[in-house]
Amino acid sequence: MKILALESSATACSVALCEDEKLIAQSYQNNGLTHSVTLMPMTVNLLSGCGISLDEVELIAVAAGPGSFTGLRIGVAAAKGLAWPAGKRCAACSTLESMAWNLAHTGGEICAVMDARRHQVYNARFASDGAALTRLIPDRAISLEELADELKKSGNPQILVGDGAVLCYTTLKELGLDVRLAPPHLQFQSAWGVARCALELARRGELTDASGLTPNYHRLSQAERERLAKEQEK
What is the DSSP string of the chain? Predict the structure, then answer.
């Protein structure tokens, strides 16, 4: 199955073309330009460079959350635009699980963390057997203190991956927890991870179509929080 995967959930932006688990090509940019400027040209150039047309792609995958609200909307909108005309199947992939797939070969427990600000991280935890992942905790927004307490009870070494990994490493290490950072080249989001996550969704029959593809923010936006706060003050 040929999978075209888009990743725009955080600062970096990437696109990958895969044949099942095999990576055919990947384009990655972290140059400060907005994803609305970079994502579609990267996609067009990647397919052109591979000599593959969009018609040959069977599945459109996207990192659907958690992550930057704007970045997620850009990625999902792009995926919808690519999938809708031909009625292609779509995969709404967890950003956290997609990152964890980069470390599935380690055979350890993987703690995926993204900086959610407001003294929280987006987090999920996985166990790897050297080839596949088993989800231990659903995607959530959690305080670093709560995460530390959970890891203490687990007692298992953790590999930290994600843009919140360095932040968490410093705090968790000071608390005496057995944590280590993923290698720099595997520490951040990549479109290959999105494609690998999408393949699992396809195998489980958990795909959708363009109309059903939506971001999963995991918490209210700042504007929504402010609106609710004003309503509660009345």
Answer: -EEEEEE-SSS-EEEEEEETTEEEEEEEE-SS--HHHHHHHHHHHHHHHHT--GGG--EEEEEEESS-HHHHHHHHHHHHHHHTTTT-EEEEEEHHHHHHGGGGGG-SEEEEEEEEETTEEEEEEEEE-SS-EEEEEEEEEEEHHHHHHHHHHH---EEEESTTHHHHHHHHHHTT--EEEPPGGGSS--HHHHHHHHHHHHHTT--B-GGG-----SS--HHHHHHHHHHHH-
For the chain, first and last CA: distance in Å? Answer: 54
Query: Is the whole model's pTM more than 0.70, yes or no?
Result: yes
- Rounded Cα gap, residues 195 and 14, in angstroms: 11
Torsion of CA 27, 91, 109, 143, to 10 degrees: 100
Q: In this structure, which amino acid lies at residue 126?
A: F
pLDDT 10s digits, 7-24:
999 999 999 999 999 999
Give the closest residue to 114 by CA, choosing from 71, 57, 156.
71
Q: Which domains does the chain have, with CATH numbers?
A: 2-96+189-227 (3.30.420.40), 103-186 (3.30.420.40)
Per-residue pLDDT tens over the stretch 155-182: 999 999 999 999 999 999 999 999 999 9
